[in-house]
Write a structure and sequence with these properties.
The protein is of the alpha/beta class and 171 residues long. It is built from six helices and seven strands. A four-stranded parallel beta sheet has the order 3-2-6-7. It has a three-stranded antiparallel beta sheet with strand order 1-4-5, with helices on one face.
Amino acid sequence: MSVITPSTGFAPIEDHNATILVLGSLPGQRSLQEQQYYAHPQNSFWRIMQALIGAEGSYDQRCTNLIVNGIALWDVLEASVRPGSMDADIKTETASGNDFVAFFAAHPKLELVCFNGQKAAQLYKRLIGPDVTDNVLRFETLPSTSPAYAAMRYEQKLARWVTALSAALKL
């Protein structure tokens, strides 16, 4: 019997002035290979960020644009066995969550936590829970930007993301 090594997530893209935190579940295979959040070309995350805040250019430029606009990016999971890229492939019995107590303490201006899809929200509820911060936060579950979530067209996803983030972005 072979042992599958857990996938390990990335450090957050953030600074202490962040007002919005976007949480995915755990990087997929393409993201792990490229060491970039949302690296799959059909994932609409960066396309949505371009429409919302003008995030374009190289990966580093897009990440800087997130920071300048007060958006932090991270994943709920620090690590988990995930044979493949589908959220359904995450073996929750092997999952460990990131340290949100420390993250929230270091980011007192956070107002909004957005889950990029149902799985991220479910994992957060199961592994982290709502009571890890004294900050008053609003939590919003948004449609997954993953190409695997084809039940909603890009325009519909964009509209939901714009509605959720506009107030916190002061748009």
